[in-house]
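PROTEIN–LIGAND DATA SHEET

This sheet pairs a single protein chain with one bound small molecule, flavin-adenine dinucleotide, given as SMILES. Inputs appear in the order they were entered. The predicted three-dimensional arrangement of chain and ligand is reported afterwards as a token string under its own label.
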Amino acid sequence: MSQAQLPQGETALEADVLQADVLIVGAGMAGLCAAVAARQAGASVIVLEKAPPAERGGNTRFSNGAIRSVYHGVDDIDTLVGGLSQAERDRAEFGSYTREEYFDDLARVTQYRCQPEMADMLVENSRETMFWLHRQGVRFLPLYEWQFKLPDGRIRFSGGSALEAYGAGEGASEALFKTAEHMGVRILYETKARELIDQCGTTAGVVARHDGKDITIHARSTILAAGGFEANVEWRTRYLGPSWDLAKVRGSRFNTGDGLRMALDFGAMPFGNWSGCHSASWDLNAPDVNELEYGTVFKRDDYLEGIVVNADGQRFFDEGADIRALTYAKLGRAILAQPGQVAWQIFDKNGAARLHGEYRVKQSARFRADTLDGLVSQLEGINKAGCLATIDAFNKAIRTDIPYDPGKKDGRHTQGLTIPKSNWATAIAEPPFEAYAVTCGITFTFGGVRIDPTCRVLDEASLPIPGLYAAGEMVGGLFYFNYPGGSGLMSAAVFGKAAGHSAAQTALAQA
Ligand SMILES: Cc1cc2nc3c(=O)[nH]c(=O)nc-3n(C[C@H](O)[C@H](O)[C@H](O)COP(=O)(O)OP(=O)(O)OC[C@H]3O[C@@H](n4cnc5c(N)ncnc54)[C@H](O)[C@@H]3O)c2cc1C
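PREDICTION REPORTED AS:
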């Protein structure tokens, strides 16, 4: 976005005390969906955004925009993208993604810990929410990346994240800001919510910091949608554990747990996987905290195309355990546990030919050589002999009688290794060879507050805190250990929309 197009935001407020039916803290997917839904229900809405206008939009803005929903086949895709051409129809087998498959993926990757009512709400509302987002101006494209590749060049959708937002996270974010602004939602930038106002046990708005002074915003309903605590180095160490201070932040620097702290201070029940988070393989050269100009260029998710070794030269996870969407979000944690919090992805010519474009950016921690010896010699701090032995053992362990097939989970695995590669195992054999140094990039935290089906925040006695709602990353109970790709935006949209609707109804009923 050019400087001229930037929203200016409000710098001089008319008063230090403001009033709205519904007050929303945070302007990511959850906050904006809540704002639009609350306006649609007839409420007046104020949104507080901690970031300045140029950095508005939270993690949503940084995201790839892939979104996981139930869909009933090509007709749903056709409607949501606004019409597929015949060439697009011919290019892909879109398949479908049923509610049972979504439940199954979510339950399996969270090791059956995800809270059933929340999973139910996410899955059952996902399809309808896609159509709602579309009506609010979010445009979608088929997500051709990361799907199965058929021998004739066509693409077979592997289920789940079949669509991405046009313009990725930034596109979705801008569309929702535009709609919200058009509907009369008032957005206060560089306004950091600090504390919930307690009116005899009922929340009555927040005190926020704006332009160097405290302002008060009174509201009958307050929705917290302020993200997790991924950008708070002290909380990461406190809740996720040792070494998490050393992870790099993949998204917004503004998600420091403010909303969670405010809710807990008010007596909200902590819920979900507070020691867990979404974390992926991230380029070692990435800055400690990401910036919008980089977006997702440091993403290193093509580990399926080769092997990954640590400083001892050892592999430490199954690179082909499943499709990327079901494994990448737990890989950061695995890398963080390695010596020096570093690992190297290693590919031969064939694997390297299949890498995504991000691997080629100039900032990439990339090494290249015509021999394996020459390659491994460049990897600073690695046990060279150990690494070469690992590659040799890996190559010899591949079941070459099973054909390599990127069109499905091919079952071409290694045999006899302590850590197998379960699918797509191909030898690291053809020069030139490439290696990429990676570390852990944290995306968002899983712990949050507990909500009921109308997104009311529950207190420690499991009773709703009057006037208080939450949505998005702040909500606990959905994701544990891992996550099915594309579910972050979907859950933010589903729960944000529901929170906005409920909060508006409550506020208007009181009015
Ligand atoms: C690099 C990256 C790629 C991703 N790719 C995908 C993807 O392809 N698909 C997918 O589904 N998910 C993806 N995600 C995850 C997804 O972005 C999040 O799950 C989702 O955007 C969360 O939405 P949210 O509204 O809860 O939080 P956010 O979008 O982070 O919004 C939180 C907002 O709260 C504001 N805030 C914080 N504290 C305060 C305060 N005290 N006062 C006022 N405002 C405050 C922040 O500034 C921010 O605007 C990705 C994330 C990252 C970082």
